[in-house]
Amino acid sequence: MQSVTAPSPGAGAGAAATRPFEPLAGAHRLAATIALALAAFMNILDLTIANVSVPTIAGAMGVSATQGTWIVTSYAVSEAIMLPLTGWFAARLGQRRMFMAATFAFTAASLVCAVSLNFPMLLAARVLQGAVGAAMIPLAQAMLLAIYPPSKRGLAMGIFAMTTVAAPIIGPLAGGWITDHLSWHWIFLVNLPVGALCLGLVWSLLGQYESTRRHAPVDLAGMALLALGVGSLQILLDKGNELNWFGSTLIIALAAVASIALVVFVVWTLTSRYPVVDLRLFTRRNFTVGVVCLALASVAFFGTNVVVPLWLQTHMGYTAEWAGRTMAFGGLLAIVLGPVIGANIHRLDARAVATFGLAMFALFAFLSSRFPPDVDFWTLATTRLIMGVGLSCLFLPLTTIYLSGLTAEQTASAAGLANFMRNIGSSFGTSIMTSLWAHRTTQYSVQLAENVANHHPAATTYLDKLGQIGMSPAAALAYVQNVVIATQASLLATNAVLLLSAALMLGLIALVWVARPPFSAGGMKTASP
Predict the structure, then answer these.
(1) Among 96, 269, 355, 486, which one is most buried in terms of CB atoms within 10 A?
(2) d(C-alpha 303, C-alpha 426), whole Å
């Protein structure tokens, strides 16, 4: 990176001008890594931690549960709009300045969320959180690579991948515990000390560094088209299942607006002299392969991560906290193995590592789809350890692939686009998988009820046993329909979602091998096969 002449506000800047990022050593690098990884973790956590608290917050604010879901939707929409713009803002302000401004604003918005007096105030604060926080993840990733020497950048990406995998798993657990034992306000207040620590460390350790700054003209038309298209798409995905998809006039209108705006945006951007998003990155084979795999893998990962706790809480009698504990097991090995895989990724073929990760996730999904109705907590939890192995060997090599061959100046734009595609994939996964789960639950309920009505031998035998313990025929039939059928149908629907996720992950293996070595991220290369 080239040096810039703007004076540094950092405490560590002794000279009159900032200088390019350079690798740090020892304790300084460790402290900077903690700061950047914590910022990314806090940002991702804030989306998932609020999910389980929506009913509580809605009740406290005096709104319906449906209105309460806008607490999540508003954050996701504003973040989705701003993520692709990360590279443009970083080029104008500098990566470190932009990161610090985003982190400060995100922390301040968290405080506003916690002290909100009414629902509109809370929604406005959540919109601000998503908008300013969007840049934190890709910029943390870009700066993390810059402060590590080329031979250790795999370790940097391993640490970063560990935080991005662990956060959506820990979020529901933390949210459930806070909601049950404290107050929903603490969901946002916990960001204050974390944000202050991140700002203090980055200010003191990286204040003397900055990336190249460019002052290209502002493409207002491109920004407006992006906001309109992405915003409409995100709302469509978040509200589609709730509004019965294309049975709703609103969903049809959002689909039309999103399609037209995004097509016009792509044409405009590719012909603009000063585009706000560098779509030409998709002309690079490895970037396209890595990002498409990342988006589709997110469909399977986030889809199952939403459906399974939903099934546990609605049909298996789990509280939000215990469902979170079950899900948290999936992050244990991912946290441990992430840095280990990262430290050795330069010795391996990234495609082979990703293939192993995809296969392990598919194995986890297949095994989980064969659970009996009375499956116990430890069977559910320990099976998720297999998923943890898969995740630790999946997102890291995909990051290595899509960053391969890019310059340091392209990293922020590439990371912003990649995280945008990951977010869209997670939104698609959540919408599609929950919709599939709900429809299949209804379908299997009808099929099972028909068997009872047709005097299926197994159903007749079960009804007879209920009669023997004192139930009247009407009570026994009601029990079968309301308890047994509902439980069995939801289990079968959950199995269908898991098998679909397994098939999707296995299908991505062929796409991963379309990428071509060498794989690098700012000078780090992995061995050719």
Answers:
(1) 96
(2) 7
Token pair belonging to 402? 């899509």
Distance CA 321, CA 228 (A): 37
CA angle 197, 169, 186 (to 5 degrees): 50
Position of tokens 């379309």? 514
Query: Residue 524 belongs to what H/E stretch?
Result: strand 524-525
Task: Check residues 445 and 99 and name the one with the higher pLDDT.
Answer: 99
Tokens of 486: 């509902």
| Total number of residues shown for the chain | 529
Q: DSSP readout, 466-519?
A: HHHTT--HHHHHHHIIIIIHHHHHHHHHHHHHHHHHHHHHHHHHHHHTTS-SPP
Q: Would you give the DSSP letter of residue 50?
A: T
Report the distance separating Cα 416 and Cα 281, nearest Å: 11
| 282-529: CATH, from 1.10.260.40, 1.10.1330.10, 3.40.50.880, 1.20.1250.20 | 1.20.1250.20
What is the mean predicted confidence (pLDDT) over 491-501?
Answer: 92
pLDDT tens by residue, 89-132:
888 888 899 999 999 999 999 999 999 988 889 989 998 998 89
What is the rounded CA–CA span in Å between residue 234 and residue 322? 30
Residues forming a β-bridge with 209: 19
- Find the mean pLDDT for residues 221-242: 83
Q: What single-letter amino acid sits at 474?
A: A
Q: What is the pLDDT of residues 370-406, one digit of tens each?
A: 988 888 889 988 898 898 888 888 888 998 898 888 8
pLDDT at 29: 86
* Matching fold, domains 18-208 and 282-529: yes
Percent of all residues in the chain with a pLDDT value above 90, rounded to a whole number = 20
Q: Are 226 and 85 in contact (CB under 8 A)?
A: yes
Q: What angle do CA 156, 161, 167 make, to 5 degrees?
A: 130
Tens of pLDDT, residue by residue over 474-490, are 666 666 666 667 778 88
Give residue limits of the domains in the chain: 18-208, 220-275, 282-529
**Contact of 135 with 40, CB cutoff 8 Å:** no
Q: Does domain 18-208 have CATH number 1.20.1250.20?
A: yes
Higher pLDDT, 330 or 132: 132
Residue 98 has phi, psi (to 5 degrees) of -65, -40
Identify whether the C-beta of residue 331 lies closer than 8 Å to the C-beta of residue 166.
Answer: yes
Q: Is the pLDDT of residue 156 over 70?
A: yes
Return the H-helix or E-strand segment holding 308: helix 285-315
| H or E element in which residue 224 lies | helix 220-239
Q: How many CB atoms lie within 10 A of CB 66?
A: 12
Contact 345, 526 (CB under 8 A): yes
Cα 135 off chain centre by: 14
